[in-house]
Design brief:
The chain is of the alpha+beta class and 141 residues long. The chain contains 5 helices and 7 strands; from the N terminus they run βαβββααβαβαβ. Helix content is 29%, strand content 33%. It has a 7-stranded mixed β-sheet with strand order 1-2-3-4-5-7-6, with helices on both faces. This is N-acetyltransferase.
């Protein structure tokens, strides 16, 4: 994990993120109105996370670490680097249940669905109906 630089993605580099998702995480697709943070080294982007923006809150989505880089703490390092983004406005995420502990380590707390803003309540219900085992969480550091 040496020499990884974490920072918001420059808009001109946006197509790189969708190429990364297409190659490794086909369900992910970045949108131009999202804030995207990356971790990269001299060989390229190693991890990324997107923040979908709403008026008074944001939703962390699409956190991804290259398979060859997993298990080295890169996801938590990316989350730590994103603290300035987390603090811009209330941040929620829908964590897969097997990643609940990871998000706890990144200072998210598990919340009840009724603690989510209404648009996110309906969104998490739709995702669960499609078979995803998700937990509502909120950044709390």
């Amino acid at each position: 994990m040496t020499n990884i630089r974490f920072h918001p993605l420059e808009p001109l580099r946006f197509p790189l993120i969708n190429r990364l998702y297409k190659a490794h995480y086909p369900a992910g697709k970045a949108k131009k109105d999202e804030v995207i943070w990356i971790g990269e080294n001299n060989t390229g982007i190693q991890c990324c996370v997107r923040f979908k923006q709403f008026d008074s809150y944001q939703l962390l989505t699409g956190m991804f670490v290259l398979p060859t880089m997993r298990g080295q703490g890169l996801g938590l390092a990316l989350a730590d680097a994103c603290v300035p983004q987390f603090k811009t406005k209330t941040c929620f995420c829908f964590a897969f249940s097997h990643l609940e502990n990871f998000y706890h380590q990144a200072h998210f707390k598990t919340i009840e669905d009724n603690e989510l803003p209404e648009p996110l309540q309906s969104r998490i219900k739709r995702y669960r109906q499609s078979g995803k085992n998700l937990i509502a969480m909120q950044y709390a550091h």
